């Protein structure tokens, strides 16, 4: 009956405990829900533009009453990226995401308000009651988290009291009972307390990334706490680990458990403090620091090494990164082109680069870290000249100055105070800049003198420009007068040529009639000779007038040509016939080297006129027995006409006069010059009207070559109309 009654009492107690537990959880869920809604409303009501993310922690502290944060409850606020930016109590889960706190297998961070309040298993297998609310104004979400153990704290207290009452009632009801049941109950109660303590201890160790271990050196077994397994990621397979299993997990370059056991056995050392690496379940090496003490317990006083192990992987990583950063900094300071030196607050040398050492010719033992400034100042190279660059009122102990060393080098030194009271000095070699500055000052002085010279030269040039302007104005006036006189001359010559040709025609006609004796004999042979002289003189005068008239028309621009396709050989042969008689009378060889089929687009009479003038000069100035030749050559889309003679040649000083109107050159002193001096000028002008040109090459006493360049195609820019040369 006692057992039945105790069973019934236990059933009712269990129902009561279960019911009160569910009520406690329901109350906690309701409190978390109301508290989450209240916080979301408070944070949304705040002005985000005014407060910002940085003021969220202060806002939480003022908006949440103290009694709302009991039983381990905490609040997390994230930004839009999901990272925790504020918490209450402050400093919880700083720098992590809400998913890291609540775990991946929960919908709260995804659905927020729609997910409501949920009981989830956070990382570390911790059951928590949590709710998440969405925020605005640059914030992401607010989460209220209530650990289940904290929510059940009151329930556990009540349950404990209730159980104590039930136990007391059972004790009273059972009386003295059997010692077996009473002892069993106490054992179970003690085990529960031990398990609770062990769980709490493991939880604390797990949160601190620590683990407990007990090494029974005599038996070679090692006990690990649950936090130790969790820290390394292993699953507990048995209560104890063998000595060899643990030794295989230790990095071979670090501590060896066999050597450690020998050391402990052969020495009086009772404490161990070592850092070593252990392979985790994922294959990564985890740095651990073991701090243990050698104790002896039991009847046989067996040695046990009992201690705690701390995960120092992050510390080692930070130390390594710090060392790498320090090495990079030293390399960077060494690589700069300036002299660098750093002093601490006690004016002791911290570090310097090789540029500073070479600049002052310092030995390696003189620049050891910690060297006082007074000691180093005695061996530093003192400056010859020192110029302050900045204002003496500069705040913060910073200054800049220029210093000249005894070897004529210049340095610009910049000194700044550091936050710890020391100062840093950077010296830049500005010798080249100083030299350039001197060159610039010298150049500036020379430039100033040059500017003064240029001003004087400008005044002189302005005066000369004014004089040139006056001369140009007078030149234009005189040019206009000369052009007017030239036009008047051309018109006068043209008019006089027409006036002279009429009586000359009569003179020539009557002299030919009288010479032929058409109306009877003149009566004396002298009259016949006189008539011949009159006719020859008239023909010469008529040719002279024709040349003057042609030149006048060329200068006046009234020459018009009838251009057509001509066979050049025909014109050359026709012109040569006119001079064969004269050449034969003077025993001259008249030769030609023609180009059969060569055609040009030109005025027939103009080409004949050009060739006639050139042959006339060649025959005139070639001594008896000489040679005159005409050659034709094709050059591209043009034809070159050469008139060569073996005459007296043209002196060099007379070459520039040729081909200018009315210029006479006396080539043969034994014969007076005859003619108008217009032949070459007319030939040049007619050749240029065809788009060609005329060139002369001569050697005195050897002969002369005249080149006439004529295009084979029509040249644009010239009028083609009916007309002929007179």
Number of strands: 24
> What is the number of helical segments per DSSP (H or I, 4+ residues)?
20
The main β sheet shows up as:
6 strands, antiparallel
Supply the helix-strand structural class.
Answer: alpha+beta
Radius of gyration: 64 Å
Poorly predicted residue ranges: 716-726
**Terminal CA distance:** 170 Å
Quickly list its features.
alpha+beta; six-stranded antiparallel sheet; 726 residues; 22% strand
Write a brief structural summary:
With 726 residues, this protein is an alpha+beta fold. The protein has 20 helices and 24 strands.
Spell out the blueprint of helices and strands.
Blueprint: H1 2-45, H2 48-51, H3 56-63, E1 74-79, E2 84-88, H4 98-102, H5 108-111, E3 117-122, E4 126-134, E5 139-147, H6 148-151, H7 153-174, H8 179-207, E6 210-216, E7 221-224, H9 226-232, E8 241-242, H10 243-249, H11 257-265, E9 271-279, E10 285-297, E11 302-311, H12 313-335, E12 339-343, E13 349-352, H13 354-359, H14 373-377, E14 385-388, E15 399-404, E16 410-417, E17 423-429, H15 431-516, H16 525-556, E18 563-567, H17 568-585, E19 589-593, E20 599-603, H18 604-620, E21 627-635, E22 638-645, H19 652-655, H20 679-689, E23 693-699, E24 703-711
């Amino acid at each position: 009956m006692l057992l039945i009654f105790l069973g019934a009492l236990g059933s009712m107690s269990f129902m009561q405990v279960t019911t009160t537990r569910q009520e406690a959880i329901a109350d906690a869920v309701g409190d978390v829900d109301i508290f989450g809604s209240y916080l979301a409303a408070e944070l949304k009501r705040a002005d985000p533009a005014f407060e910002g993310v940085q003021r969220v922690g202060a806002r939480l502290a003022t908006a949440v009453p103290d009694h709302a944060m009991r039983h381990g409850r905490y609040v997390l606020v994230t930004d839009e990226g999901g990272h925790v930016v504020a918490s209450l109590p402050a400093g919880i889960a700083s720098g992590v995401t809400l998913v890291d706190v609540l775990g991946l297998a929960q919908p709260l961070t995804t659905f927020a308000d729609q997910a409501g309040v949920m009981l989830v298993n956070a990382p570390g297998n911790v059951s928590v009651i949590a709710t998440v609310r969405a925020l605005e104004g640059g914030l992401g979400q607010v989460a209220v988290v209530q650990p289940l153990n904290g929510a059940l704290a009151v329930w556990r207290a009540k349950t404990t009291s209730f159980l104590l009452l039930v136990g007391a009632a059972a004790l009273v009801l059972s009386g003295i009972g059997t010692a077996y049941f009473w002892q069993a109950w106490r054992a179970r109660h003690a085990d529960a307390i031990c398990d609770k303590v062990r769980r709490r201890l493991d939880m604390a160790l797990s949160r601190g990334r620590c683990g407990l271990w007990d090494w029974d050196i005599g038996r070679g077994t090692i006990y690990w706490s649950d936090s130790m397994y969790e820290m390394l990621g292993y699953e507990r397979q048995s209560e104890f680990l063998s000595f060899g299993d643990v030794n295989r997990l230790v990095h071979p370059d670090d501590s060896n458990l066999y050597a450690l056991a020998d050391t402990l056995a052969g020495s009086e050392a009772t404490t161990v403090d070592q850092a070593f690496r252990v392979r985790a379940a994922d294959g990564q090496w985890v740095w651990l620091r073991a701090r243990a003490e050698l104790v002896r317990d039991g009847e046989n006083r067996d040695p046990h090494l009992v201690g705690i192990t701390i995960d120092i992987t992050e510390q080692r990583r930070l130390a390594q990164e710090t060392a790498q950063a320090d090495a990079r900094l030293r390399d960077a300071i060494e690589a700069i082109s300036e002299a660098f030196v750093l002093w601490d607050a006690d004016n002791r040398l911290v570090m310097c680069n090789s540029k500073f050492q070479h600049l002052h010719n310092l030995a390696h033992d003189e620049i050891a870290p910690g060297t006082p400034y007074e000691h180093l100042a005695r061996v530093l190279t003192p400056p010859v000249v020192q110029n302050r660059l900045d204002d003496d009122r500069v705040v913060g102990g910073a200054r800049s100055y220029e210093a000249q060393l005894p070897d004529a080098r210049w340095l610009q030194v910049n000194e700044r105070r550091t936050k710890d009271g020391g100062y840093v000095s950077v010296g830049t070699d500005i010798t080249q800049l100083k030299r350039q500055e001197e060159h610039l000052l010298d150049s500036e002085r020379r430039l100033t003198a040059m500017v003064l010279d240029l001003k004087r030269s400008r005044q002189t040039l302005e005066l000369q420009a004014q004089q040139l302007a006056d001369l140009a104005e007078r030149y234009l006036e005189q040019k206009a007068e000369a052009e007017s006189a030239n036009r008047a001359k051309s018109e006068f010559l043209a008019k006089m040529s027409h006036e002279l040709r009429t009586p000359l025609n009569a003179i020539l006609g009557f002299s030919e009639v009288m010479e032929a004796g058409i109306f009877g004999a003149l009566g004396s042979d002298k009259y016949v000779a006189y008539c011949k002289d009159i006719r020859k003189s008239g023909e010469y005068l008529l040719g002279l007038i024709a040349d003057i008239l042609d030149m006048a028309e060329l200068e006046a621009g009234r020459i018009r040509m009838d251009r057509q396709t001509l066979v050049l050989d025909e014109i050359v042969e026709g012109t040569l016939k006119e001079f064969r008689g004269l050449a034969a009378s003077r025993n001259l060889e008249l030769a030609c080297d023609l180009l059969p089929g060569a055609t040009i687009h030109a005025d027939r009479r103009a080409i004949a006129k050009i060739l006639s003038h050139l042959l006339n000069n060649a025959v005139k100035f070639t001594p008896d027995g000489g040679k005159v030749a005409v050659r034709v050559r094709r050059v591209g889309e043009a034809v070159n006409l050469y008139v060569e003679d073996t005459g007296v040649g043209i002196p060099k000083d007379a070459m520039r006069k040729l081909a200018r109107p009315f210029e006479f050159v006396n080539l043969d002193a034994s014969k007076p010059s005859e003619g108008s001096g217009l032949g070459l000028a007319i030939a040049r002008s007619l050749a240029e009207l065809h788009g060609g040109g005329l060139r002369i090459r001569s050697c005195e006493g050897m002969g002369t070559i005249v080149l006439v360049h004529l295009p084979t195609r029509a040249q644009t820019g010239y009028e083609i109309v009916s007309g002929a040369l007179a």
